[in-house]
């Protein structure tokens, strides 16, 4: 019975993460910090979409926001993992920010995916 409670608590925590408006904003901040200087056009397409997702969440569209965040976080993770980093580059400031953004992408895909799949819209609840 205790394993069931722990599993349910983990799933609920991930779903709460996905229904929150802070993770897409935080990921947009990390992406901007990495790619704004020098400016890289393709990765800089992600922050406006993630900020719009956060706006949708605050406007009451939690399920739709979670879906957008999960999809665009996964796309950014695929884009960022294409770059090869040498061992020396992984422990600098840019490497730490890159690792944090990839970790946040993974948590966003899991949490927001759960929130999207199991979420309910307000008109569904009526």
Automatic annotation (TrEMBL):
Keywords carried by this UniProt record: Membrane, Transmembrane, Transmembrane helix
Membrane-spanning parts: 102-119
Keyword Membrane: yes
Domain of life of the native organism: Eukaryota
Name assigned to this protein: Altered inheritance of mitochondria protein 19
């Amino acid at each position: 019975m205790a394993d069931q409670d722990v599993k349910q608590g983990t799933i609920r925590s991930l779903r709460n993460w996905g229904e929150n408006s802070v993770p897409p904003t935080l990921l947009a901040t990390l992406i901007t910090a990495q790619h704004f200087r020098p400016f890289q056009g393709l990765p800089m397409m992600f922050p406006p979409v993630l900020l719009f997702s956060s706006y949708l969440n605050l406007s009451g569209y939690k399920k739709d926001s979670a879906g957008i965040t999960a999809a665009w976080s996964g796309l950014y993770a695929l884009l960022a993992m294409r770059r090869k980093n040498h061992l020396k580059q992984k422990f600098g400031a840019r490497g730490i920010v890159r690792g944090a953004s990839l970790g946040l992408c993974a948590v966003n895909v899991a949490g927001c995916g759960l929130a999207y799949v199991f979420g309910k819209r307000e008109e569904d609840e009526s």
